[in-house]
Design a protein that fits this description.
Layout lengths: L2 H40 L3 H32 L23 H6 L2 H28 L3 H12 L1
């Protein structure tokens, strides 16, 4: 087994693991914000209730950005997209909506946990997205090697 195929297999397993995590978190968020969280939201002060609704949308946005990025990575692994195509700005992760820490402290515990988990997942996937650009940039050593190969 070559180092490249080993790296590819590890990358695929990481993407699959993150995809599973994102889908489970999305299902948990949907369940909470659509069902269980309604009673908790109604018990909140009206201004905090608006913030609760905004944060639920931000959680969904973060998770959809992550899932779309992970699906792009799966398409690259399957050969449906070239790695360079994944660097198109439309296929990149995108920015995560920020949250107000004071508002988050006023939310019910489960809502706060979902907001923080979605932000954490987005941050981790963001590190992979940033690293992907660096991986595809030719290193000076590779450029020198290519120049030497052309010369001889």
């Amino acid at each position: 087994m070559t180092a490249r195929s080993s790296e590819s297999r590890i990358h695929r397993r990481l993407i699959d693991s993150l995809y599973t995590e994102a889908m489970l978190l999305a299902d948990e968020a949907r369940s909470y914000f659509d069902e269980a969280g309604r009673a908790e939201r109604e018990a909140l002060d009206p201004l905090i209730r608006v913030g609760f609704s905004c944060e639920s949308l931000k959680v969904t946005t973060r998770l959809m950005h992550v899932i779309a990025w992970l699906l792009t990575q799966r398409a690259v692994d399957a050969g449906e997209l070239k790695p360079r195509e994944a660097l198109d700005p439309a296929r990149r992760l995108g920015h995560a909506p920020q949250f107000d820490a004071d508002l988050i402290r006023a939310l019910p515990v489960r809502a706060r946990t979902l907001v923080e988990a979605s932000a954490n997942l987005h941050r981790r996937v963001g590190l992979l997205d940033a690293a992907q650009e660096n991986e595809l940039a030719p290193s000076p050593v590779h450029r020198l090697h290519d120049r030497l190969a052309l010369a001889f």
